[in-house]
Specification:
- The protein is mostly beta strands.
- It contains 2 helices and 40 strands.
- Helix content is 3%, strand content 57%.
Length: 744
């Protein structure tokens, strides 16, 4: 027994040393480039002074720690103005998946990755992605939060397919980065490659999924010189010219045509101080009127649905103001006239502030409503494993004779307990002053996350009082005590090529109000399988309970989620299922609220050519009742409503900068007036757009939009009447938008 125990101890020690060696960070010193590296210098050969050489990429998925399936070599260097990375990726060019696309639009492609932790705090990193044609995407990574893809900055990238794979060159201006003022720069660096058809991610150094946290596993890199971005200021003016004619049908008996000739000009400006801090100013900021929201199902939803921000001023550095529970949601700001933002870092401290003058800030978007908004955020990285932060928001609304002030102050923290466990916590207090009446509220949040090779687990607990001020937050529910849990156990099938992982999934939610009365619960149990070519299948059995309008409802159903990109020119994603659902919008006098709900979410993406792309998006849901709610004459299923949304998007990208796209959105809602208060109707929106996007901040966009509905204008004076066909054009719009970024 002693011999067996000693042997087990020895094996455990060896295994521990092997894992430690695999996760060990590799120090490197980046050389200065005598001349900026050029893409052609690495096609079929390697120049004499190529930079620091990186090889030995290791898989993160599917085989954690296994050597990469295909060879990749990267070369790093710098000069007084740029940081450079060149990737030479080996592959059969016929198997490389890549398209000529506009910026940040290469889903499903192969690509390479460069991540730089420029403050070496092991908490944040700039992320740069480039596909084989040089199409670029950038983001910010903050541990504990989702990847912030809204981040945009100026940098250069080139790519080219070769006889044995592809080559990518990245040149990042020092002006586009933030870093310490030091004689020697110490950064964290991660290099990666994604092979889409193999569903493979590989990195140098090895970034293991068995370790909770991405940035802490980066290699340590030194630049043995003092760096400076020099004078770093930007001015970004824009002008928007548009003409629109829209039918206001709020009162069907007296519709009014609204004609608008709009000329809007605005300005964004940035001044970087000391390479680590930035001041941003906006005057009449860009409203991003050229991009529509992606379709989402809102019919049959009890709580608010999140639509993401699109305005550039609020997208930049948005991740810095994120907290575990989102206490600042910028789409709450309706019509900003001017804004000021300050963000920066000093040693272990990060800080930021925001001031906004908002017009049309009332719930009815009245122009008589104006709000002054202030926000401040500070965070201190006490160690690599522990960070504490604070957030303060203040909103003062003035609407007619109503005065309201919402103030929120909170603290939050993140602690990495070990390689597998991460803990997060948040606590906030709020006060609402409404014409002399004061309401106070509280918010608490706890989160525990485990990341391992086989077991992934997440637990979240929220405690939000009914009077918590949410005028600037995204909190679909208050008066809440809620526990959410997600668990997944996986088996990795290294012996198989196409089937990579199988496992079990369990999700649960338990919600009570502040008096501890049960409000709802749900439990989903399922199985999953994941394979190569971005293929997956998940099947769930669903059960739940909900209290609504004083009644108790039991629910059960099922859900299937699956997708694949098995063919290089076609990808499919779909989620469909059925579950008992409540009719939240019943007609007057209807008491039977529970019905049978079904839903489909289907996305097809066709890529017949590197420059062409066709996307088809279908969203469908319905609700059926077994009785009418008014009588029991029939036991047959009765439709409450049927909701259909279909979007077709055709895109042609002439090169990385110039493209055209056509979108057709069709929406049909058929509601049973005996059971539902929803109004039936049909609508078709078409949108044609030509865009030239040279870089973030410099673009020219021209577009034309048209809206048709199943309406008719009858009589004199005219009134609206529903028809069977899309017979009336109720809106049209033509516009041109130009913005240009000046680097000072």
């Amino acid at each position: 027994m002693l011999k067996k125990a000693a042997t087990q101890t020895l094996l455990a020690t060896c295994l521990s040393l092997m894992i430690s060696a695999a996760y060990a960070q590799t120090d490197l010193i980046v050389p200065r480039a005598k001349t900026p590296p050029q893409l052609q210098d690495y096609v079929g050969r390697v120049p004499a002074e190529a930079g620091f050489v990186v090889r030995d990429f290791r898989q993160r998925t599917p085989g954690d720690g296994n050597p990469a399936s295909l060879a990749t070599t990267a070369y790093l260097s710098f000069d007084e103005t740029h940081f450079y990375a060149v990737f030479v990726a080996k592959d059969d060019p016929k198997n490389v998946r890549a398209r000529i696309a506009k910026r940040e639009d290469f889903d499903g492609d192969d690509f390479v990755i460069l991540e730089l932790d420029t403050f070496h705090d092991k908490r944040r990193a700039f992320s740069f992605f480039v596909n084989p044609y040089g199409v670029q995407m950038d983001s910010k990574r903050i541990e504990g939060l989702e990847l912030d893809k809204n981040f945009d900055t100026q940098w250069q990238s080139d790519g080219q397919l070769t006889d044995d794979g592809y080559v990518v060159r990245i040149a990042i201006p020092l002006k586009s980065l933030r870093f310490k003022n030091a004689d020697v720069q110490t950064w964290g660096v991660t290099l990666g490659r994604v092979i889409a058809r193999l569903s493979e991610e590989s990195f140098w150094p090895h970034i293991s999924k068995q370790v909770a946290g991405f940035v802490p596993q980066a290699a340590t890199m030194q630049i043995p010189e003092r760096l400076s971005a020099g004078r770093n200021a930007q001015v970004n003016p824009f002008v928007y010219l548009g003409n629109s004619r829209i039918l206001n049908a709020d009162v069907p008996t007296s519709p009014v045509w609204l004609q608008d000739n709009k000329v809007q000009a605005g300005l964004d400006a940035k001044w970087v101080i000391g390479d680590a801090s930035a001041i941003d100013l906006t005057i009449k900021p860009d409203f991003s009127e050229v991009e529509s929201d992606e379709p989402q199902i809102v019919v049959g939803k009890r709580y608010e649905v999140l639509f993401p921000e699109k305005r550039p001023f609020f997208l930049e550095n948005a991740g810095f103001f994120h907290t575990p529970t989102p206490l600042f949601f910028s789409r709450r700001i309706a019509q900003p006239q001017a804004g000021l933002r300050i963000t920066g870092r000093q040693d272990s401290w990060a800080y930021g502030g925001l001031l906004i003058d908002d017009h049309a800030a009332g719930e009815d978007a009245s122009e008589n409503a104006k709000a002054k908004i202030a926000m401040a955020r500070v965070q201190n990285d006490l160690s690599h494993d522990l960070a504490l932060g604070g957030l303060f928001t203040d909103r003062r609304l003035n609407q007619d004779h109503v005065r309201q002030r919402d103030t929120v102050a909170g603290i939050d923290g993140r602690f990495q307990l070990d390689d597998n466990w991460i803990l997060q916590a948040q606590f906030a207090r709020s006060q609402t002053d409404l014409d002399g009446k004061k309401l106070q509220g509280h918010l608490g949040y706890l989160e525990a996350k485990h990341q391992g090779k086989h077991l992934e687990y997440l637990a979240k607990y929220s405690d939000i009082s009914q009077n918590f001020a949410s005028s600037l937050a995204f909190l679909p529910r208050t008066d809440l005590k809620q526990l959410q849990q997600e668990a997944m156990y996986l088996w990795h099938l290294d012996a198989y090529t196409d089937l990579q992982r199988i496992g079990f999934i369990g999700n649960s939610t338990l919600s009570r109000d502040q008096t501890n009365q049960m409000q709802d619960w749900s439990a989903d149990l399922g199985v999953l399988a994941e394979g190569s070519r971005d293929s997956w299948l998940e099947i769930f059995s669903r059960h739940g309970y909900e209290k609504y309008a004083g009644q108790d409802y039991r629910k059960q159903g099922w859900l299937v989620n699956t997708g694949t990109s098995w063919l290089s020119w076609l990808s499919v994603m779909t989620e469909f299922g059925a579950i008992d659902s409540i009719n939240y919008t019943p007609a007057a006098g209807v008491t039977n609220l529970l019905g049978k709900g079904r839903s489909i979410d289907l996305t097809l993406t066709f890529k017949p050519h590197p420059q062409w792309r066709i996307e088809e998006k279908l969203l469908w849901n319905d609700l059926r009742n077994s009785q009418s709610g008014q009588s029991s004459q029939s036991n047959e299923a009765t439709s409450v409503y049927r909701n259909l949304m279909w979007r077709t998007k055709l895109s042609y990208q002439h090169n990385r900068f110039l493209g055209v796209r056509l979108i057709a959105d069709y929406h049909q809602l058929a509601a049973n007036p005996r059971l539902s208060s929803l109004e039936s109707g049909k609508q078709l929106n078409t949108d044609l757009q030509l865009s030239y996007l040279l870089s973030p901040g410099t673009s020219l966009i021209a577009g034309y939009g048209n809206r048709q509905e199943n309406l008719a204008l009858i009589g004199n004076p005219a009134y609206l009447q529903r028809t069977a066909d899309l017979s009336l054009r109720t809106g049209r719009r033509a516009f041109i938008k130009l913005n240009y970024l000046y680097q000072l």
